[in-house]
Write a structure and sequence with these properties.
This protein is of the alpha+beta class. The protein is built from 5 helices and 8 strands; from the N terminus they run H-H-E-E-E-E-E-E-H-E-E-H-H. It has a 4-stranded antiparallel sheet with strand order 1-8-3-6. Strand 4 and strand 5 form a beta hairpin. The structure holds adenosine-3',5'-cyclic-monophosphate (CMP).
């Protein structure tokens, strides 16, 4: 029998509230663009200063975004790594797993397509990205 690791992208996608407003067909289409990634505690998934090639949705677990002066904790349903894809700038922070994490990876070449096909998703990602950039540039 096939070993079931519970890694089916569609089930992981269902746990990300950002995708909840989308139809079942869209969720299925999105799931095909996403690759599951399991992190162990302490594992670094994004490194400050590197070019961005993907963004990440957190299906379960928690990561720490090491911004100054205080790190930010992101958990289930949150996403990260979108800024480098939106701004073409290098990664602006290290991101470290604080627990076992189930992530969904969206490669940059699929990012534009996904956003173009899902305007509500694009709006939500843009809004959160803007808030994060405000934090970065505030004194
Ligand atoms: P990126 O710059 O690609 O890589 C580091 C990520 O950390 C960044 O995208 C955001 O997703 C995330 N990040 C940066 N600043 C903040 C913040 N103020 N709050 C939450 N997440 C952030």
């Amino acid at each position: 029998p096939k070993l079931d690791l519970g890694l089916q992208p569609d089930k992981l996608v269902a746990r990300v509230p950002l995708f909840n407003t989308l139809s079942a067909e869209r969720v299925t289409a999105i799931a095909q663009l996403l690759t599951p990634l399991l992190l162990v505690p302490g594992e670094q998934v994004v490194s400050k200063g590197e070019p961005g090639d993907a963004m990440y949705f957190i299906s379960s677990g928690a990561v720490q975004v090491r911004i100054e002066p205080d790190p930010v904790l992101l958990g289930s349903g949150d996403f990260f790594g979108e800024l480098a894809l939106l701004t073409q700038a290098p990664r602006n922070a290290d991101v470290i797993a604080m627990a076992y994490c189930q992530l969904l990876v969206l490669q940059s070449q699929d990012f534009q397509q996904l956003l173009a096909e899902n305007p509500s998703l694009q709006e939500q990602i843009n809004r959160i990205a803007r808030d994060r950039l405000d934090v970065e540039i505030s004194p």
